C-alpha cells in the first residue's frame, strides 16, 4: 500500500546510482519532486524520460546525472536545453552518457516494462542512423512471416516519479487528460513516488474506465499543490508558458543558471509550489 | 461571402503555411508536428478542410484547438479532442496501426532525397551542435501514408549531405524505401518559404515544382546546399487569398493573446 | 467515415468464408448482429472470439462456421454450450475445426493486430498441452536476455462486430464499462460493424480519456436498441441471467434448438430486440 | 459482537468455501475465478480480510460486489470496482506484470501434482467430452505468486492421469517448475468438500493436511483417483463459525434475490 510521506521523505527512496524515470508528456511534469532530488544532492543517476525538458536540464546542470535515456530533449516551443547541450557538447559539469531512442521505441519499452516482458517489438528505426549509435536497438524475426522487426529492451526503472491530480485516503491515484506514459512508468518500476495536487475522501463520480493507479502499485504519495508548475495539471491550473521562455536566457550561462538554482531550488522547499501556482491561476 | 482574391501583402512564412495547409484534405488523418506543421494543419481545418482529423503525439485524437499549442501536449489539445489516449497506445494502435494518412514534419536539416536530421551537427559522440533528437519522427516517416515537410530554406538547412539521418525519406533515391520493405510513400511534398518541392517520380530527388510569386530560381539555389533541380513544368505558387491570410492572422492573434494570459 | 446503415445492410459486409470476430466480454455482446448473420445464411466462417457463448452456439448450430478460434467456450454460470460440443464431438451440423488458445494469448493477439504487428509475445503456455495441439503457438528468443517467450500470430479479422452504448451523428462510438477486447478487435479488422443502443447529437460530457472509436475507424453503424440482449449494456439494461439458464435445455436437443431458432431468429428481425429489452428493464 | 462458535450444521460446500476464504489475507491481491473461488474470495472480503483486492479477468480491479456475479463480467463487478481496464491490459500489465499474489482456480480435473484439466476428456481431436477450455487459467497458473484451488472431490475429478494439462501445477513433481524457468510458487493449497490438501514440501505431491470434521481417511480415498497420502501431522479442519456461515448464507441469499429480478 502507498505510504503518505512528506516530499523529502518520499524522495529518499531515490538512491545514488539509481535509474530514475520522471515522466509527464508536457502535462503533469513532476517539477517539485525533481527539485527535491536536486536538494538531496543525488548523484550518478541514470535519468530516463521520453521528453527531457526544463526539470532534466536542471538535474543535469546540477550534476545529478551520469546518463540520459531519452527520445526528444528540448524546451518545447522555445528551443534548446542549454544545460543538456553543454553536458553533451562540453562535458560540464560532468560527462553525460546518452542512450537515444525514438518516441515509439521508448513508449514501447515502458509498455513492455509494465507488462513484465524483457523487450518490446516495433515496426521502427527503418533507414535511420540511431541503431548505428545505440547498440541496444536490435531485432527479432517474426516466427510466422519471417519479417524482421526492431526491438528495444524493456525500461525497468529503480524508481519512477510522476505527478497526478489526486489520491484518495487509501492511496489510489487518479490521472486524467494527457496521460503520456506515466501509468506504464509506475507499473514498470521497482519503486514509485507520486506527487498529487490534493487528497480527497473519495475519488468521486468518474468514468468506469478512469485511469487509476491502485494504492498497492505505488510506494509513496506526497501532497504537493502546484507540484507540476511550470507545466500544468488538467482541471487545476494552466501551463506557465512564460516560464519556459524565461528559462532560455537563465540556462544559457553557467553562472546565471547556478545563481537561479540556488535562489529558487536549493534555498526553497516544496511548499513554494503552491505560491508559484497562486501567481498563475 | 469569402474573399478569394490573391493577396500581395504576405510574409514568406505566411505563404509557406498557406501552401502547406492547402495540401491537406477533409478526409485526411494527420499526425501533426509542432511549430510550422501545427499552424498549417489548423489553418486547413479552419478553411477548406473542416473535417480533417488532427492527431498530436501526446495522445490527443481529432483535436480542434482554438489557439495554436506551444507544445505538443498543451491542455487546449486535450480539452478540444474527441478523446485522449496514452502515448504507448498512440504509437502502437494509431501510428504503427497504419491509421494516419499524412505525417507532417519539420526538421533542422534536409537532403535532396528528403531525409531529415534533427539529432546532431558534427560527430554523434562529439557533436558541434546537439539538436533535440528524433522524437516521433523516425516512425512517423515510415508508418504514415505519406509525409509532408515544411521548413524554411537556407544553405545550413538544405544540405548536400546530412551528418545524421534521423528520419528516412527516399534514402539514396528510387527503390530505397522498397529495399527496406517500407510500403508507405514517404515524403511527397516539401513546403518552404520560397517554393514547393516534390520528389521526381523516377529518381526521387527533390525538384522545385512551384516558385512562390516573385521568387527567382537563383534565389532558391542560393538557399539550397545542393544543385537544385526544377521540374519541366515548374510554375508559380498561387498566392494566399485574403481570406486565408485573415484566418491565419486571426489564429496567430488569438494564440498570442491566449498565451499572454499564462504567466 | 462510418456509414449509418440498417442492420441488414451492415451485415452484408460479412461474406461467406470470412474471418469474423464478434467480441464482448460478457458485456455488450452483439447478439442482434449475430442473429442477422444467421438470417443472411453466411457459411464457412472462421469465427473468432475469446469467450464464445450463446450467440456462437447459435451460429455453430445453424451451420455458419467451419472453424472456431477461441479460449473459453461455455455458457457462463450455467455450463456447456451444447451446439458447440455437438459440433466438436459429433460433427453436427458440420465438422468444426478448432484453434484453441488461452485468454492471455488471444488478448495479446488482438492487441498485436490493433498495433499492426505480425505476432504477439507473452510469458505464457508454460508446461501445458495446448502448444502440442495448436501449431500456431511458437516462440522467440529475447535478443537481450536469451529468454524464450511464447508467441501467437496477430488476429486480423476480415470483419469485427461489436455492440456499444452510443454513437454521435458523425459516427464516433463510445464504449464504457467492461470493454473487453472490443476496441482492439475493431482496430485489428479490415472492416467493422458496430451496433449501438442509440445515436446522440453529441457524446456529451465525458472523461477526457473516454474510450471512443473515431468514426473513420468504423465501417458501418446500426442503431439496434437492446441489441446486446440477453447480455447487457452498462447504463442501459441488465443481463438477462434467466435467458442463459433457459438456453441450456433449448440447446441440448437438435430439434428444440432448430425450432427455437426458427421462431426467435429466422422469422424475426432486429427490431425485436427493443421489445425483449422492454421485458427486462 | 460476532459469533465465533464452531457450527455443526453446514454443508460440505459451505465448509469448502469457508476454509478457502480463510486462506486469504487483507494484503492479498487475488485473481478470482468464477464459481466456488468467487464465493470464497468475497466471503474473505466480508469477514476477516476486508482489505483484500479482488480482480476478475474481465478487467475489474478492486471490486466489491454486494452479490455474487453469475459470470466473470457481470455489471455488478464493474459498478463496484475501483476501475475497469481492457482485457489486453488486464492480462499484460496486471497478470503478466506480476502484480497478483494469489490466483484462485477451479477445474474439472486435477492430478496429484495439482495440474488441472478444463479442456477435454478423451482424445483432443476426438473428445469424449469437450470442456470449456483454459480461459485465463494457463497464465494465471504461472504468473500469480501462488495458486489456491477449490473443487469438490470425486474419482472423476481427482484423477490418476490427466488426459490434457490445461494449467501447470507441479508438473511431474519437485523441480518441474524450476526446469521451465517458472519462478512463482504454483499451487500451495487445494480446498475440497472433504479436506484440504497441500503439496509435500519435498516431492510436491498433494497430501491431505486437514480433514473436515467427521470426514474419514477412507472417505477421502474413495473420492480420489490415486492413492492419496496424508501428512504426518494431519489434523481436523476448524469448523465454520456461526458468523462465517451467516455471512456466506446472506451473500447467497442476496445473490439469489438479485438475480431473480433479472428476467
Q: How confident overall, as mean pLDDT of chain B?
A: 95
β content of chain B, as a range? Answer: 15-25%
Count every helix of chain A, treating DSSP H or I runs of 4 or more residues as helices. Answer: 10
Structural category of chain B is alpha/beta
CATH topology of chain B: Glutaconate Coenzyme A-transferase
Please trace the helix and strand order of chain A, writing H or E for each element.
EHEHEHEHEHEHEEEEHEEEHHH
Protein name (chains B, D): Glutaconate CoA-transferase subunit B
Keywords (chains B, D): Transferase
GO molecular function, one term (chains B, D): CoA-transferase activity
InterPro entries (chains B, D): CoA_trans_fam_I, NagB/RpiA_transferase-like
Give an account of the 3D structure.
The complex is a heterotetramer, with two copies of chain A (281 residues) and two copies of chain B (263 residues). Chain A is an alpha/beta fold. Chain A has helices at 7-11, 31-39, 54-61, 82-90, 103-114, 130-133, 182-188, 241-252, 254-266, 272-280, and strands spanning 3-4, 19-22, 45-49, 65-70, 97-100, 119-122, 138-141, 148-153, 159-168, 173-175, 191-200, 211-213, 220-223. Chain A folds into two domains: 3-100 and 156-276, Glutaconate Coenzyme A-transferase (3-Layer(aba) Sandwich); 103-153, no CATH class. Chain A is 31% helix and 23% strand. In chain A, strands 1, 2, 3, 4, 5, 9, 10, 11, 12 and 13 form a ten-stranded mixed β-sheet that branches. In chain A, strands 6-8-7 form a three-stranded antiparallel β-sheet, with helices on one face. In chain A, helix 2 (31-39) packs parallel to helix 3 (54-61) and helix 8 packs across helix 9. Chain A is globular and about 55 Å long. Chain B has 263 residues and is an alpha/beta fold. Chain B has one domain (12-259): Glutaconate Coenzyme A-transferase, CATH 3.40.1080.10. Helices cover 27% and strands 21% of the residues of chain B. Chain B has eight helices and 14 strands. Chain B has helices at residues 12-22, 36-46, 75-79, 87-95, 137-143, 176-179, 217-222, 242-260, and strands spanning 29-32, 53-55, 60-61, 83-84, 102-105, 109-110, 116-117, 120-122, 127-130, 146-150, 187-191, 195-199, 206-211, 229-236. In chain B, helix 1 (12-22) packs across helix 2. The radius of gyration of chain B is 18 Å and the shape is globular. The chains are: A alpha/beta (281), B alpha/beta (263). Chains in contact: A-B, A-C, A-D, B-C, C-D. Chains C and D meet through helix 4, helix 5 and helix 8 of C and helix 3, helix 4, strand 9 and helix 5 of D.
Amino acid at each position: 500500500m502507498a505510504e503518505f510521506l512528506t516530499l523529502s521523505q518520499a524522495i529518499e527512496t531515490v538512491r545514488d546510482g539509481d535509474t530514475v524515470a520522471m515522466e509527464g508528456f508536457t502535462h503533469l511534469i513532476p517539477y517539485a519532486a525533481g527539485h527535491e532530488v536536486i536538494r538531496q544532492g543525488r548523484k550518478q543517476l541514470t535519468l530516463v524520460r521520453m521528453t527531457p525538458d526544463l526539470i532534466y536540464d536542471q538535474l543535469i546542470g546540477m550534476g545529478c546525472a551520469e546518463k540520459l535515456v531519452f527520445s526528444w530533449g528540448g524546451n518545447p516551443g522555445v528551443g534548446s536545453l542549454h544545460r543538456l547541450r553543454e553536458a553533451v557538447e562540453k562535458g560540464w559539469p560532468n560527462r553525460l552518457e546518452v542512450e537515444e531512442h525514438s518516441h515509439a521505441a521508448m513508449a514501447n519499452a515502458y509498455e513492455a516494462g509494465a507488462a513484465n516482458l524483457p523487450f518490446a517489438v516495433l515496426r521502427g528505426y527503418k533507414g535511420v542512423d540511431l541503431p548505428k549509435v545505440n547498440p541496444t536497438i536490435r531485432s527479432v524475426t517474426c516466427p510466422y512471416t519471417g519479417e524482421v522487426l526492431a526491438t528495444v529492451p524493456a525500461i525497468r526503472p529503480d524508481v519512477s516519479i510522476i505527478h497526478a491530480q489526486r489520491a484518495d485516503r487509501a492511496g489510489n491515484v487518479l490521472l486524467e487528460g494527457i496521460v503520456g506514459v506515466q501509468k506504464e512508468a509506475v507499473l514498470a518500476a521497482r519503486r514509485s513516488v507520486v506527487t498529487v495536487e490534493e487528497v480527497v475522501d473519495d475519488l468521486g463520480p468518474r468514468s468506469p474506465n478512469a485511469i487509476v493507479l491502485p494504492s498497492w502499485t505505488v510506494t509513496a504519495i506526497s501532497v504537493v499543490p502546484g507540484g507540476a508548475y511550470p507545466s500544468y495539471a488538467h482541471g487545476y491550473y494552466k501551463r506557465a508558458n512564460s516560464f519556459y521562455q524565461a528559462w532560455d536566457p537563465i540556462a544559457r550561462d553557467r553562472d546565471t543558471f547556478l545563481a537561479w538554482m540556488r535562489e529558487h531550488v536549493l534555498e526553497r522547499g516544496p511548499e513554494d509550489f503552491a505560491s508559484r501556482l497562486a501567481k498563475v491561476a | 461571402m469569402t474573399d478569394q482574391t490573391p493577396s500581395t501583402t504576405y510574409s514568406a512564412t505566411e505563404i509557406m503555411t498557406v501552401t502547406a495547409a492547402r495540401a491537406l484534405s477533409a478526409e485526411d488523418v494527420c499526425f501533426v508536428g509542432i511549430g510550422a506543421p501545427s499552424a498549417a494543419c489548423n489553418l486547413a481545418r479552419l478553411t477548406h478542410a473542416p473535417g480533417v482529423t488532427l492527431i498530436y503525439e501526446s495522445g490527443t485524437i481529432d483535436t480542434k484547438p482554438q489557439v495554436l499549442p506551444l507544445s505538443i501536449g498543451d491542455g487546449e489539445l486535450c480539452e478540444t479532442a474527441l478523446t485522449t489516449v496514452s502515448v504507448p497506445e498512440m504509437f502502437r494502435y494509431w501510428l504503427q496501426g497504419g491509421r494516419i494518412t499524412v505525417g507532417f514534419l519539420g526538421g533542422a536539416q534536409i537532403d535532396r532525397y528528403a531525409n531529415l536530421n534533427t539529432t546532431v551537427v558534427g560527430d554523434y559522440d562529439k557533436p558541434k551542435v546537439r539538436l533535440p533528437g528524433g522524437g516521433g519522427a523516425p516512425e512517423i516517416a515510415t508508418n504514415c501514408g505519406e509525409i509532408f515537410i515544411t521548413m524554411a530554406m537556407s544553405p545550413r538547412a538544405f544540405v548536400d549531405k546530412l551528418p545524421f539521418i534521423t528520419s528516412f525519406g527516399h534514402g539514396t533515391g528510387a527503390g530505397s524505401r522498397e529495399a527496406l520493405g517500407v510500403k508507405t510513400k514517404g515524403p511527397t511534398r516539401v513546403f518552404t518559404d520560397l517554393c514547393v518541392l516534390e520528389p521526381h517520380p523516377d529518381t526521387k530527388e527533390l525538384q522545385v515544382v512551384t516558385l512562390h510569386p516573385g521568387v527567382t530560381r537563383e534565389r532558391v539555389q542560393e538557399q539550397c546546399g545542393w544543385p537544385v533541380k526544377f521540374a519541366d513544368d515548374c510554375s508559380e505558387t498561387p498566392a494566399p487569398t485574403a481570406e486565408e491570410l485573415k484566418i491565419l492572422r486571426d489564429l496567430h492573434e488569438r494564440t498570442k493573446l491566449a498565451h499572454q494570459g499564462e504567466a
